[in-house]
Amino acid sequence: MSEHDESGGSEAQSAGNLPAQLTSLVGRARELAELSTLLAGTRLLTLSGPGGSGKSRLGLAVSRAHRGDYAGGAWWVDLASLSDPDLVAQHVAGAFDLSPMPAQAAAAAIARRVRGQRTLLVLDNCEHVADETAALIAGLLGACPALQVIATSRQSLGVPGEQLFRVGGLAVTAPGDRTAEPGAVDLFLERAAWAAPSFKVTDRTAAAAARVCRWLDGMPLAIELAAARVAVLGVEQIAERLEHDWRLLGQTGRGAPARQQTIHATLEWSHRMLNPAEQALFRRLAVFRGTISLEAVEAVGAADETERATVVDVLARLVDHSLVQVVERAGESRYRLLETVRQYGQEKLAASGESAAVHEAQTHYLIALAERAQAGLAGPEQARWIERLDAERDDLRAVLDRQLVDAPETAGRLAGLLWPFWSRRGAYQEARIRLERAAALADRMTPAVRVGVLTGAGVLAFLQCDYLLATSRLEDALRIDHELGDRRGVATVLQRLGSIAREQGRYEDARRQHERSQAVWEELDDRSGVAASLDYLGFVAWLEGDTARAEELGTRALATFRATGEAQETAAALINLGAAASYGGDAALARRRLDEALSISREIGYQEGVAWAQHELAILARREHDLPGAAALLRTSLRLHHELGDRWRAASVLEEVAGGVLVRLDPGRAAELLGAAEALRDALQTPLPPAERPDYERAVETLAERLDPASLQRHWDAGAARGLERSIPSAIDAIAGLSSPDAPPWRHALADLLTEREQAVLALLREGHTNREIAAELYISPSTAGVHVSNILRKLGVRSRVQAATLAAQLGLPSATAREPLSPAGRPVRQRP
């Protein structure tokens, strides 16, 4: 039965006292269906969740949907106003219109009233009288076999047989998503229209509403309070203010209970029910912005060993009170506070006088975690440590921001520990910002801390192809490493200086730096370091075209990485070896290596590896004439390289898009992209690697055949002027059709697929000519024209002349009037100037 079903006039359906539902229930269809199923299989169904999650409204909705099933009626009892827990039974008896009597007698009277009739009892807001309510429910269920109870409470009641249903926030879906069920944004927009009849839903207001709802974790009460402010503020203003002043969520109307007229009042209601130990842990956990591990709860939430011994029990009670949420991440239970709850907790923390001590404990905990992670990232548990630090990302940011102002030495230490994580995770831009902020204060750090910051800043600048700054930072770090006698630091910096030289085409310098690094790693007896140097040397070798040398060096490196279990390094070595095999002519071996590298990279979240492996796989696909496959790989590779800020590889991918895919299909666009790539290489001072030059030169030769010199130069110059930011969307758009699942089954470029005569026929088809008209234009018989048309349709994988003409236009085939005329022999007739 629907929650809004008011049909029927029997006494059974009208029995009870369920209140009217004054406002619509938005976005709870799934929950209502699940609650209906649970109600059919249990006698006590408890809806538990934080204040403002909509437990009462949901409990009322499911009760109204099923009230016709209860001959004894559906009875609603709101316990929120009850201040004396000893009066629970009498309060419930009053709902049945029973005369006032002592508690024990009241319970017995309720049982007699219910008797053998199937009855539903709904007890709303039980948390502050949980023990007494639980005792009453247990007694009634034992005495009344036909009784069912629905309870709403911020904590479970603990009655045997209780079915607990946790109520969370509404889903926050993207505005305009027609496939999604109604959710948080729909609730906001509906209530905003109630608050301000002039309110208009636009793309902009819907996007701002989604921002508000995400910040409020989809909690219905908070959303309604925020929406009410539309009467005096714009939605974007509400979004901005909420992130700084959560008390904006104030009174909306006199009809709501006092505890629901502000979020603050709702939280005060919950906080008063906590004992001192629970209040202490609650306010200390408010220091965390993201999810919290149990280890962090113990390290930061417990002030001493005595508290540490009981912290798990206290945490469990906070979860039961719905003030702390349990979330699963990578098989681990973690904890979080809703944003409004966290800000309320921060106020309590500030008022307690513990704030400085708790912040210090959090900083110490995260630095200790980062130190352990630094070692873990270099071993077989890379993926686990990346996931672990990623889970702490919000709090790492908060500590870095706080300490950079108050304690640069501490912030620098943490930043220096974190740069390997940032680089492996692909967070290049964020890492650069934070490391450069720390580097600006490097003179306030000790040399041991300063060198970590400078090394990290140099590495991340290199990864985003800012070679001048990268070299400066790394050379400063190298000098300090020498002064400190840190040989490991020296080897690390030499490797990165060699990488800069490699990308700038200074291959002899690159080899020299990598070999110096290798010597230091050998001196330190560091197998992984030696393997890394060998892998870098193999990278230089295949770029220069020495695939045999690359194979020998890469194979040695890969064997070590497999033995040590270093997943990212294994993936990188496989990509280098895959490229060496590809350019060496062994496509099958190259594909096996690159497929494995792509699989590993995806599994550990190594974005650079994903992008790089797909680029090299696209080259193989293009050589096998699989243009749809190549286009799909290139689209993802180009997008990822651009997001990372890796402009050196972005240039190579642009060149492959242009020269490998578009050169025959859309020569004008291909010339533009090659012009953009050339301008980018000139700006970066990174010449085309020798291994990639033959493909590039063939592409340029083909363009010269397809375009007249003036047109070629015009397109080339336009691409150079357009720049990288505008060229990447252009490239992705150009190959979108080929990589679409709806695209025809292309296996060859157009010029390779059709004969010159067939291309001429297709050009005339594009203009709508009949077979007879084509025959007259090309000096052939109509039957021969018909054969050509049939062959074209078959080769293009289309069924009609219209589809063939449309495809010809999409692929840039010149129209018949733009093509050179054919002689009766089928060859172009050169026109005199």
SSE layout and pairing:
Layout: H1 11-14, H2 29-39, E1 44-48, H3 55-66, E2 74-78, H4 88-95, H5 103-114, E3 119-124, H6 130-143, E4 147-153, E5 163-166, H7 184-195, H8 203-215, H9 220-228, H10 235-242, H11 263-272, H12 276-285, H13 294-301, H14 305-320, E6 325-329, E7 332-336, H15 339-352, H16 355-376, H17 382-391, H18 393-406, H19 408-425, H20 428-439, H21 447-463, H22 467-484, H23 487-503, H24 507-523, H25 527-544, H26 547-564, H27 567-584, H28 587-604, H29 607-623, H30 627-644, H31 647-665, H32 667-684, H33 693-706, H34 709-722, H35 724-739, H36 750-753, H37 756-766, H38 771-778, H39 782-796, H40 801-810
Parallel strand pairs: 1-4, 1-5, 2-3, 3-4
Antiparallel strand pairs: 6-7
Helix pairs in contact: 2-3, 4-5, 5-6, 7-8, 7-9, 8-10, 12-14, 12-15, 13-14, 13-16, 16-17, 16-19, 18-19, 19-20, 19-21, 20-21, 21-22, 21-23, 22-23, 23-24, 23-25, 24-25, 25-26, 25-27, 26-27, 27-28, 27-29, 28-29, 29-30, 29-31, 30-31, 30-35, 31-32, 31-33, 31-35, 32-34, 32-35, 37-39, 37-40, 38-39
CA gyration radius, whole angstroms: 35 Å
Q: Provide the low-confidence segments as ranges.
A: 1-13, 743-749, 822-833
The average pLDDT value, as a whole number, equals 88
**How would you describe the shape?**
globular
The profile of the biggest β sheet is: 5 strands, parallel
User: What is the first-to-last residue Cα distance?
Assistant: 83 Å
- The beta-strand count equals 7
Can you walk me through this structure?
The chain is mainly alpha-helical and 833 residues long. Helix content is 65%, strand content 4%. The protein is built from 40 helices and 7 strands. The strands form 2 sheets. It has a 5-stranded parallel β-sheet, with helices on both faces. It has a two-stranded antiparallel sheet with strand order 6-7. α6 (130-143) links the parallel β3 (119-124) and β4 (147-153). α12 crosses α14 (305-320), α16 (355-376) crosses α19 (408-425) and α21 (447-463) runs antiparallel to α22. The chain is globular, with a radius of gyration of 35 Å. The N and C termini lie far apart (83 Å). Mean pLDDT is 88; it is low at 1-13, 743-749 and 822-833.
